[in-house]
Amino acid sequence: MSELTSPLHRLAEAAGVSIDWVDGSNTARRVSDDVLRAVLAGLGLPAGDEEEIATSRQRLIRLHQPEHPAQWPPLLTARLAQPVALPSAVPAGSRWVLTDENGGVREGELTAPGELSAPAQPGYYQLEIRPAAASGEEAVLYRGTLVVAPERAFGLADIDAMALPRERRYGLTVPVYGLRRQGDGGLGDTAALEQLVRRAAGSGVDSVAISPVHALFAHDAERISPYAPSSRLVYNALHAAPDQLLAETFTREAFELDRVRLEALELIDYPAVAAARWRWLRRVFERFSHARGAAEDHGLKADFARFRRSHGRMLEEHCCFEALCASFGDPAGWPAGHEHIERPKAQAFMRRQREEIAFHAFTQWLIDRGLARAQRTAVEAGMAIGLIADIAVGVSPQGSQAWSRPGETLTTLDVGAPPDEFNPHGQNWGVAGFSPLGLIREGFATFIETLRAGLRHAGGIRLDHTMGLSRLWLIPQGAAPTEGAYVSYPEEDLLRLVALESWRHRAIVIGEDLGTVAPDFRQRLNEWGILGMRVLWFERGDDGGFRSPADYTRDAVAMTSTHDLPTVAGWWQERDIDWRQHLGLIDEPAQERAGREEERQRLAAALGIATDAVPAEVVDGAIRLIARSASRLALIPLEDLLGEIEQANLPGTVNGHPNWCRRQPPEANRLASDAVQARLAMLRQIRNPGVDSATLERAYHASDPAPGPETPS
Which EC number applies (predicted)? Predict the structure, then answer.
């Protein structure tokens, strides 16, 4: 039997695992059989011998080619007013019944075996397929959900139809953890975020894209990466600001004597901050729990109860996970019988630990309401978009989401990237992605929950490594990043769900499409109305020179840099090379510095500045170039607005570089320095020349908060 027709290869092809692929240098590569077997096993398709391969093959056939409606997946997708291709044929004349979200019912007969026409209104419909009336049978052949997607995602043009039309909008990107305010205890929080968005709106800013605020690990303050969260379904409670919502009666004596020391640090001391914040949050919860009557708690207890009911099982399961960690430490050390939420011992633990679970639900309520308040402040102050939330590509395989949603999470395969010119050894990001087969089996439930958590209090979302909607490089745990394979995902279904949720929340979608991207993928994103990212460092012409701003993609987001790349000032001064040389990450530093000198000349030519310009001039020039770009949205990192040298994260490092630890200068939230005000004025004059400062000043003061705690509606 030839290699190309082996049962293993046929199984891999049927499972969407690419046997052959092309690397960043356009070299053809082939995945070894051992890697194929390991990846297939991680997908839940054992392939150790011919018997296992045959069994796995039959499982795939039942999932992708069901014989009858009883085997159909629980969720189907379609586009507006187009034929719905049902998973298998049913007799012509069979009846369909569609129930919309308001209880409206439509029914009819299938026009042809296996096809019906989707409604002209997007939404979630309950679909039933019943036997033909003439058969006399009343059984339901299928009952599930039909998702009808709009033609594209909600976009900037739709915002223009609702608000003051602007051809080119602009905003900031902001690390929530690094923001400062007096009384924050050493870590950025939602109150600091609210302060910043109010100030930014007063300068004409339309959006503030924030770092991920996914839940991390309450029991382990060393796990700090916002891109390796415990769960994307809930938030990081350490960013909660109880004094933003509750009266001083509940929040006094916040951080005691340690607060002043922690707030003065340039780098976040996560263990000390976490310990102090959790102690404070527990005291606040105890006082809140003992408050008597609506007059004392301002009706907030009722709001808390509504919050728990509305978030239901998802919230309670996460809180149970946190309670288990509080009792037993890291999940690897838990007693047997608690490996999954459905285990009887885990269920019994949840019933016993109601108070601890209520505490963690309380902290989720605080962060949820804080984010809601920040977004409301942004919109009321005149921002057309407001917050743009960031959704990480994966979760920790030891975290809450993987524990409560194992059927949709690949806990034995790591997401990463194959070798390329920037990372010759490849990358392993140490996070678990969705299971492509589990998504289909479970009706995409967790994917939808993930989108909704990001969109709940935002006017937009950024999808990290958006190629994950189409394919991911998956690496068996313990293997080198080179020993992985590309695995395909149900792209059309995922894009339809993104578009629908985008419209339901009136929120734009940004897809992080940097690095190696499959052919035509950017075009498909564009057709769906998803904005790509165009970052200064990567926008080059055929000659290697920096692209003219007029040549930037219109339906995209133009940026000076990102959290994984050098700041403009840092790049100009070779700070990134300094760090990589210090950590032994480059073999030929002299060669890198010589190459940077050539690049500096190219950038200087593009910006119209001297090659010996001081960093502030370079920053001004880079922001001016991005402001002049043809892209409909420009985002400037707060670090570049401030002229900072250090970058937030140095990819490929865990220790050595202070990733995710840098705090912004004390004046950052106020956006008040002369340099910052000049750069904001330049952005406004270039992007929105018709908006004067008096109009912005009126909008700013109209958003001033009322004194005292706020009672949610």
Answer: 2.4.1.25
How many separate domains does the chain show? 3
8 Å CB contact between 383 and 203: no
Indicate whether 193 and 233 sit together in one domain: yes
Looking at 123, 149, 175, which one is the last position of a domain?
Answer: 149
CATH of the domain at 661: 3.20.20.80
Does the residue 73 lie in any domain? no
Q: Average pLDDT, stretch 694-704?
A: 48
Entry pTM: 0.94
Instruction: Write the DSSP symbol of residue 61.
Output: H
CA triplet 670, 224, 329: central angle to 5 degrees? 135
Instruction: Give pLDDT, residue 47.
Output: 96
Asked if 544 and 692 sit in the same domain, the reply is yes
Do both 99 and 194 map to the same domain? no
Pairing of strands 214-215, 231-235: antiparallel
Domain end (from 133, 149, 165): 149
Q: Please, where are the H alpha helices in 174-257?
A: 190-201, 242-245, 248-251
Its domain, for residue 32, covers 3-64
Q: In this structure, is residue 711 part of a structural domain? A: no
The pLDDT tens digits of the residues spanning 397-408 come to: 999 999 999 999
Q: Which residues contact 346 (CB under 8 A, 6 or more apart)?
A: 320, 324, 337, 338, 339, 340
Distance CA 32, CA 43 (A): 17
Whether residues 430 and 510 share a domain: the answer is yes
Do 340 and 319 form a contact (C-beta atoms < 8 A)?
Answer: no
pLDDT in tens, 628-643: 999 999 999 999 999 9
Residue 22 pairs with which residues in a beta bridge?
28
How high does pLDDT run on average in the chain? 91
User: What is the C-alpha to C-alpha distance for residues 634 and 171, in angstroms, rounded to an integer?
Assistant: 6
The phi and psi torsions of 427 (rounded to 5 degrees) equal -135, 140
689 falls within a domain: yes
Secondary structure (3-state) at 532: strand
Q: Are strands 115-117 and 105-109 parallel, antiparallel or unpaired?
A: unpaired
53 Rama class: left (phi>0) / alpha (psi -120 to 50) / beta = alpha
Give 296-327 as a DSSP string: HHTTHHHHHHHHHHHHHHHHHHHHHHHHHHHH
